[in-house]
Amino acid sequence: MPKVSIIVPVYNVEKYLAKCLDSLVIQTLDDIEILAINDASTDNSLQILNVYASNYPQIKVFDKPHDGLGKTRNFGLQKAMGEYVGFVDSDDFIDNNMYEQMYSTAVANNSDIVMCNYVREDTASGESRICALPKESADVIDIKVLSSMIGPDPIDTQWRYAEMLGSAWRRLYRKDFLKALNLAFYNEKKIL
Question: Alpha-carbon distance 13 to 49, whole Å?
Answer without folding.
Answer: 11
